[in-house]
Specification:
Layout (H helix, E strand, L loop, with lengths): L1 H32 L5 E13 L6 E11 L2 E11 L4 E2 L19
Antiparallel strand pairs: 1-2, 2-3, 3-4
Length: 106
């Protein structure tokens, strides 16, 4: 019984922390893109999250809807985070290849 309560508590805390991390990622992307004054961000949402080769790191595929002049555009972006640090790209030190290539794009 105690084991089940501990597991449920762990899952609840994990889901709350994951929500905070995802909110921080969306806020980071909004700030990063807001430097371009010609663009108006209409919506940013995470459409895919995946563990990557680095322990504790995940890749996030973002769907971004923005207005540029009189046109609306939808773009995708990929960022990486371990919950404390966010990076717009990570590269394999041996091959130089971007880890973005390894994310499953749904």
């Amino acid at each position: 019984m105690v084991k089940k309560i501990v597991i449920i508590f762990f899952l609840l805390v994990s889901s709350v922390l994951a929500g905070d991390i995802e909110d921080n990622i969306i806020e980071f992307e909004k700030k990063r893109l807001s430097h371009n004054k010609r663009m108006q961000i209409q919506e940013i949402k995470i459409i895919h999250k995946e563990d990557i080769e680095l322990d504790g790191w995940q890749g996030y595929i973002l769907d971004i809807k923005l207005k540029l002049q009189d046109k609306t555009a939808n773009i995708k972006d990929i960022v990486f985070s371990n919950g404390k640090i966010i990076a717009t790209d990570l590269h394999d030190i041996k091959t130089g290849e971007s880890l973005k290539k390894h994310l499953q794009k749904n």
